[in-house]
C-alpha cells in the first residue's frame, strides 16, 4: 500500500487551506446576479442564479441553485439542486420554446412574465441547515433553521426548524430536539454572533449537546 497525494487541492478543506472573507468560487462554476457572504465556498461544476448565500455557507460541487435565499452556516452537499425550474404545465406545450422563443428561432421575445413567475416561487433556507447528497428542494419551499435534509430527498413542502426529513417526497423522520428547545436555540441565534464570539464559544460547540448549549447560552427573559 502506498499513500497517494496528487493534484492541486480543489476543495476548501485540504490541509493548509483557509477560507477568507472573500467568497471562494471554483473556476469551473459560474454565478449570476447573486450575493455571497464571508467565508463562503462554491465547489466545481456549479451554477448559482439570483440567489444569496449567507456567511460561512458552502456548496461542495455539482450544485444548481436558482432563486434561493440561503442562510448562514448552511451545509450543501454534492449534487444538491435547489429550485429547479418549473415548466408551464398549464400550456399546450411545456417546452422552452414557449418562453425562450427567440433562442429557438421564433419571432417572439422571451416571455418575461413567465420568468417573473419563477422568481416569485423562491426557496428560503434558514441558518445551519444541512442538505445531503443529491437532494432536491422544489420551488417555493421554506426550510427552517437547524433542519437536516437526507441524501436523495425531494423536498416538496416546508420543513419545520430542527426537523430531519428523508424520502421521496420528503417526510419528517424525527426532530433534532423538542419544539421548546428548538425555539430556545432560535432565540440564541448563534449564527448571528460575531466571529470573535463564535471563536470564544468553540469549545462549547464541540463539547455540548443541543440542550446543554441552550442551557448555557439562552438569553434571559
Structural class, by secondary structure, is alpha/beta
Distance between the termini: 59 Å
Biggest sheet: strands, sense, closure?
8 strands, mixed
| Rg, nearest Å | 20 Å
Overall strand count = 19
Approximately how much beta-strand content do the residues carry? 15-25%
Order of helical and strand elements:
EEEEEEEEEEEHEEEEEEEEHHH
Average of pLDDT: 94
Spans with pLDDT under 50 lasting ≥5 residues? none
Q: How many separate helices?
A: 4
The global form is: globular
Strand order in space, largest sheet: 1-4-7-10-13-16-18-19
- Helix proportion range: 10-25%
Explain what the structure shows:
The strands form three sheets. Strands 1-4-7-10-13-16-18-19 form an eight-stranded mixed beta sheet, with no helix packed on it. It is of the alpha/beta class and 221 residues long. Helices cover 18% and strands 22% of the residues. The termini are far apart. It is globular and about 65 Å long. Strand 18 and strand 19 form a beta hairpin. The longest helix is centred in the last third of the chain and has 13 residues, at 195-207.
